[in-house]
Write a structure and sequence with these properties.
By secondary structure, the chain is an alpha+beta fold. It contains 14 helices and eight strands. A three-stranded mixed beta sheet has the order 3-7-6, with helices on one face. The protein has a three-stranded antiparallel beta sheet with strand order 5-4-8, with no helix packed on it. β6 and β7 form a beta hairpin. Bound molecules: iron/sulfur cluster. Iron/sulfur cluster binds next to α9 and α12.
Amino acid sequence: MSETIRIGEGQGHASMGIAAELVRDPPALPAQAIVKAMLAWYDRDHRDLPWRAAAGATSDPYGVWLSEIMLQQTTVKAVVPYYTAFVKRWSTVNALARAPREDVLGAWAGLGYYSRARNLHECAKVVAGKLGGKFPADPAELVKLPGIGPYTAAAIAAIAFNGRAMPVDGNVERVVARLAAVEEPLPAAKTQLRSLAEGLTPKARCGDFAQAMMDLGASVCSPRRPSCMICPLKDLCQGRRAEIADALPRRSPKPERPLRHGVAFVAVSERGEVLLRRRPDKGLLGGMSEVPSTEWQEEWLPAEDALRQAPVKAGWFAIPGAVTHTFTHFRLGLMVFRAHVRNNPSLTLWARQKDCRWVHRDALDGEALPSVMRKVIAHALDEME
Ligand code: SF4
């Protein structure tokens, strides 16, 4: 095994000037032994999930695709009820393609990352239309479909078609980094971890092996405290042997997410309706519903400037406390104003009237409202209870 010294890569050692970091070349992994141990463990201990076929069988491509899109950035626990509701309502890709987009976005509300729901619907339309209702088996064809990246393509190819592909997500990266004791920090180590993981892909039972790796990363080889004593790979794991497993994978420090601010307006009519607006199709939360709000910008807008942008002329009052929400690339703080207005009042130019409608507060659950807007409405209306 060779050792290399990399100069200047050490993070968090600024006071030392030039930092030296010792990085070992990772050992080659004993692929056959790893595959054998993992498949035996999977046959015994795999998680029962509603989109999974029995060990050894292949799963329905529609269910695999739907679950994989839902699982992007979301936990299995959060996904199961959404998945179950979706397949009950739309049991095939053709049925999902025929559904109005508002219904799909509404059923998705609460799962976050709404571009996934828009792409899901677009993808269903392409598969049901051009592709005659059949998902392709080749990852190179799958990545051409809306919302399907390399990971999801590999997962569908392996799990639904038993193709020779290895989906590599954060869980699999962690397992492989520990197995091979890779000390180079992420994200720089990504390529190396991917190639180590791909090197493990077996010739048969690719879907079961991929799912076994996912399960191991999600349960036994957990981020903080891996349960090495019950791990099927404990005798093969370099990270465990070197007693550094729980510190792997190492990570370069992330830059802070920038902060943005805005003001949201919750107008409530005499009939108990709330003014909602459809967001533009393109961009963050595209096509979802919201209560009208100002632009989200770096600085807080002074209250009097914000009130000039209110959707209705009314006696607006500020609800104490701000609503905060974290998106992938920024954090958002929203100040919330509420007003009680008569039924069907005239809307101001700021409201973008054609996108607005009044929805009774009892019917808000069925609306395609993202989590941040549900927080805003709860913040404004809870205080009225
Ligand atoms: Fe992860 Fe421990 Fe298993 Fe290694 S032995 S793969 S660190 S759980």
